[in-house]
Amino acid sequence: MNDANDAHDTKGAGGASGERRDRWAEVTGAPTVSDRYAEEYAARFARLAAEGGDPHGEARFCDALLARGSRVLDAGCGTGRVAARLAELGHSCTGVDVDPAMLAVARRTAPGPDWHLGDLVALDAVGLTPGYDLVVAAGNVIPLLAPGTEVAVIAQLARLLRPGGLLVAGMGLTPDHLPLAEAPFGAGEYDEWCAAAGLERHARYSTWDGSPFEPDAGYLVAVHARPAEPLLPEHL
């Protein structure tokens, strides 16, 4: 199993607008985290790498789906671990997170990607240019959104994809893969939200290493695709 499937792999979940309180705030006790928390979060993965662990499973998984030089959006990027690694692998990367402390670490440690402070619930307001080859929401981003905002967030992520582009999301389905007492939704419900956003299910896995997904899996790596635009008849 890839180390990044850890139960405490929780990045900034993008926040919540208005009076909604996201589950990330419930976990941390505040809508955003302290500078110390952000630094400690980043240091955790640095220690993992130093001890011979694999902190880049998500990036490697996404890279295998992409042509070199692809446009990638890391939604709920936290301290930028995934986007930074994909940039090192030759992709054009953008990261968005609602947490200023997390983004400060990303900007300091990985100046290559384009980092934006923004709320995934109001992602249209960030002003991103559509046409991404891949959008990744790793680190339990979707389960930690404010309850009831999941459909709107997925729809906005889908609109940023080019035709044929991919939405890749990793999420815990059981408490041992979540910082929550219970999973807020299941794999089937997530599929329904993606379908409502016009996305088609491409593949399911139970780890970022690509292990097959089973009905009793505690973790889901889901790949959904925006359908390619139909070709026009040759006589038109």
UniProtKB/TrEMBL annotation:
Superkingdom, taxonomy of origin: Bacteria
GO molecular function: methyltransferase activity
Coiled-coil parts of chain: none
CDD domains: AdoMet_MTases
Sequence ranges assigned to domain Methyltransferase in this UniProt record: 72-165
Gene Ontology annotations of biological process type: methylation
Biased composition (Basic and acidic residues): 1-11
Alphabetical list of InterPro entries matching this protein: Methyltransf_25, SAM-dependent_MTases_sf
Keyword Translocase part of the UniProt annotation: no
UniProt KW keywords: Methyltransferase, S-adenosyl-L-methionine, Transferase
Residue segments, region Disordered: 1-27
Protein known as: Methyltransferase domain-containing protein
Taxonomic path: Bacteria, Bacillati, Actinomycetota, Actinomycetes, Kitasatosporales
